[in-house]
Design goal:
Layout: H1 2-12, E1 21-25, E2 36-39, E3 47-50, E4 56-60, E5 65-68, E6 81-86, E7 94-98, E8 107-111, E9 119-122, E10 140-142, E11 150-153, E12 159-162, E13 170-171, E14 193-198, E15 206-210, E16 218-221, E17 229-230, E18 240-246, E19 252-257, E20 268-274, E21 279-282, E22 295-301, E23 309-314, E24 323-326, E25 334-335, E26 340-342, E27 365-367, E28 375-378, E29 383-386, E30 395-399, E31 409-413, E32 421-425, E33 432-433, E34 451-458, E35 461-470, E36 481-484, E37 492-494, H2 511-514, E38 519-521, E39 528-530, E40 536-538, E41 546-547, E42 557-559, E43 567-571, E44 576-580, E45 588-589, E46 613-615, E47 623-627, E48 630-634, E49 642-643, E50 648-656, E51 666-673, E52 676-682, E53 690-691, E54 703-708, E55 716-720, E56 725-730
């Protein structure tokens, strides 16, 4: 009996078979917010970058690219990096503080091989790598005189210490601030302790900044953290210390803002504190009349000359965010954007308005300790670097992004013709990728929508595409819809009748105003159907519109990829599959035999949700439907359905080109099989699933959308939430 039980147990825990895949990033270059950049003081050419939801990177000088360091991570929260600390002596040793938000797990990671492998120590104090205040820091610091000792300034729970290289941690009881505790409401946070800073030239001397309310915001220890005292003086209490840097002369330069940012900052200052003299000096750069003040975040001091300092602004939208540089410890300032150029040839999409601006959210700023002419700063969309930082004349900046792909993907399609990939991003709108290895020339334009929520292409005329999206404002100012006739290179706006873009009776915006109205295109590209508050269609590119009969509000529509007269939709509320046989003019129930009676699990919730109903390219009437984690397929336009037999619990799925000799499209899924969540493929209609990602390619399992390529068997595209778009090809199958 015991033997039988053991055999049964071993069968239950068998993992799904695996197939080796080669994974690569679709190239955009940068793309998202990287709150901090830190140069190693132990080795020339070594630097680390932390991002708010895409993990950390290391600059590989020999390879000339940034190397992602957390692609093997399976815990989503760990992809939000709160702080990075390279060892000041051992170039191979580096630490990360990771944790996405107050309600997720957090940990301190230690690597002795530059981030290739990590030892993970879960910690009891919460972090906020993707919350307000993520531009503060660095919060994690190594004692240069006792390098097994580290301190971490937490958001909610005061100051913490480890004396065994981050293996164990204890709270520093002697520190004056215990912390405010974790926030009791969602989507709120504390800034807490903003930085921990050691002075390498003065043994035992260290500083900690606090952004929590109180009389004092800077604290000092002269005995390695055993005792502490508040530092009096400095700016008014309403200004909060954001970041700090200490020069070779022991003087500390601090940046201040009136909020923890990156949003909401309206004012700020720059001060210098001399610990030996106990004196403060206000050296805030000058402001012109009519200038929106903004605050100050990034701060750096040259390792060669402590009089050379630099600071960056945040939220100074008039005239622009900038970096200031001084060669006399702040007595005079040089505003760098005025004499700078930006060559964005490697990431041309940054020319949003015909000329790349200096940047926004410049939270991180660093001067190379081995080369004072080399400096870098981060923005909300890229990382810039220059080799002219210490030279007069024009200062040339270029994106320093090769290898960095830090974006959130909402949707994507791989059409049957034209470019292999067209995508919808958060914040950047999305791209047409004719070449997966090159950054596209521009984002989707006319209109530019910060988020693209739905994309569709005409199955028999694949150069015709449609998209819907929203902006960062509650109401889209012009239109949330667009169409293209050249595969997504050039777009034209689609405007609904004015009656469809007025607020509802209760005063809330119409679906089309918020970008929540998805759009679908018929197989021949002639008909566009919009899921507005009153579903509408046009057959003349938006010149005229007509109401769609029989289609409930909020039902996601799918067009047949061959027959232009057929559209399909799931009426989840009433448990029905609907079909149009007259080109979308009207919908009526299909038989739907074989579908579950309860179709609530096939409801597409939210404007960014993937469509659960997908039509097969090249096969009229062939459909797949995802309901409550299970796939169903139909070959007769929804009249009859068959449940896929495989034991996969599916979150998202997509179709690709069939395997040679197979009657089935290749199925790709973000799914859980035998308790393991990952990326899977089936070539037999969902009866058998093979895992195609491995332990080195998990990306925090922050996976949002998936699709195969209808023209290339085995090719799959996976949209992540923080690591851009991955594309995979099988190894050893002979395609």
């Amino acid at each position: 009996m015991l033997l039988a039980s053991l055999i049964a147990l071993s069968v239950n825990v068998l993992a799904a078979p695996t197939l080796p895949y080669a994974w690569r990033n679709v190239t955009v270059g940068g793309g998202g917010f990287a709150p901090g950049i830190v140069f190693s003081r132990a080795e020339r050419g070594l630097a680390y970058l932390r991002t708010d939801m895409g993990g950390a990177y290391r600059w590989d000088a020999a390879g000339g690219r940034w190397v992602p360091l957390q692609d093997d991570v399976a815990e989503a929260s760990y992809m939000g990096v709160e702080s990075v600390a390279p060892d000041p002596v051992d170039a191979d040793l580096v630490y990360l503080a990771v944790g996405m938000g107050a309600r997720g797990p957090s940990a301190i990671l230690r690597s002795s091989d530059r981030g290739t492998h990590w030892r993970t120590t879960p910690v009891p104090f919460a972090m906020g790598g993707n919350e307000d205040g993520r531009g503060l820091g660095e919060r994690l610091a190594i004692d240069p005189d006792a390098r097994a000792t580290l301190f971490f300034g937490s958001r909610h729970d005061g100051l913490w210490r480890s004396d065994d290289s981050a293996a164990t941690w204890h709270k520093v009881a002697a520190f004056p601030l215990a912390g405010l505790g974790r926030p009791d409401r969602p989507r709120t946070t504390h800034g807490g302790l903003s930085f921990v800073l050691f002075d390498p030239a003065h043994r035992g001397r260290m500083f900690v900044g606090s952004t929590d309310p109180g009389e004092h915001h800077l604290f000092r220890s002269d005995d390695g953290g055993a005792t502490w005292r508040a530092v009096s003086g400095g700016p008014r209490a309403a200004l909060l210390p954001v970041k700090a840097a200490v020069g070779g002369d022991g003087v500390v330069t601090l940046s201040y803002s009136d909020a923890i940012g990156p949003n909401g900052v309206k004012d700020g200052a720059v001060w210098r504190y001399d610990p030996d003299a106990g004196t403060w000096r206000d050296l805030t750069p000058p402001r012109a009349a009519g200038e929106v003040p903004g605050g100050f975040f990034g701060v750096a001091v040259s390792a060669q000359d402590p009089r050379v300092i630099a600071v960056s602004t945040v939220n100074r939208y008039q005239p622009v965010d900038t970096v200031w540089r001084s060669t006399d410890a702040g007595a005079h300032w040089d505003e760098l954007w005025r004499r700078s150029t930006r060559d964005v040839g490697v990431t041309p999409f940054l020319d949003f308005d015909g000329r790349a601006n200096f940047g926004h959210w410049i939270a991180g700023l660093a001067i190379d300790p081995f080369d004072p002419a080399h400096a870098a700063y981060v923005t909300g969309a890229t990382v810039y670097a220059t080799d002219d930082f210490s030279r007069p004349g024009t200062m040339r900046w270029r994106p320093w992004t090769r290898g960095i792909e830090q974006t959130a993907i909402i949707t994507l399609v791989s059409p049957t013709g034209g470019a292999p990939l067209v995508s919808g991003f958060g914040d950047l709108g999305g791209f047409r990728h004719a070449d997966l290895t090159r950054s596209p020339a521009h984002v989707h334009r006319t209109p530019f929508l910060t988020n693209t929520n739905s994309l569709d292409y005409a199955g028999a005329a694949p150069l015709v595409l449609v998209r819907s999206g929203n902006t960062h404002k509650p109401v889209v100012p012009d239109t949330s819809l667009a169409w293209s006739q050249d595969g997504g290179e050039v777009w034209a706006p689609l405007r609904l009748p004015a009656s469809e873009t007025i607020p509802r009776a209760d005063g809330t915006p119409a679906r089309a105003q918020t970008g929540s109205a998805a759009i679908t295109v018929s197989a021949d590209g002639a008909t566009f159907l919009v899921e507005s508050d009153r579903p509408l269609l046009t057959r003349d590119r938006g010149a005229t519109w007509r109401a769609v009969a029989g289609l409930p509000v909020g039902a996601r529509v799918t067009a047949d990829k061959v027959d232009p007269m057929r559209f399909y939709a799931v009426d989840a509320g009433r448990g029905r599959l609907l079909r149009s046989d007259d080109g979308g003019a009207s919908f009526a129930p299909a038989a739907g035999q074989g579908l579950p009676a309860d179709l609530s699990g096939a409801r597409a919730v939210g404007r960014e949700a993937a469509n659960p109903l997908v039509a097969v390219p090249g096969r009229a009437g062939a459909l797949w439907l995802l309901a409550a984690g299970t796939l169903y397929h139909s070959e007769d336009a929804g009249e009859h359905w068959t449940r896929a037999d495989g034991a996969a619990r599916i979150d998202r799925y997509g179709l690709g080109k069939a395997a040679p000799g197979s009657i089935w499209p290749a199925l790709y899924a973000i799914a859980t099989v035998d308790g393991t969540r990952g990326i899977y493929r089936s070539t037999d209609g969902g009866a058998r699933w093979i895992q195609i990602n491995d332990a080195a390619h998990r990306w925090g399992l922050r996976l949002r959308v998936i699709s195969g390529d209808p023209r290339r068997y085995g090719r799959v595209y996976v949209g992540t939430d923080g690591r851009g778009i991955m594309y995979g090809d099988p190894k050893g199958e002979g395609e």
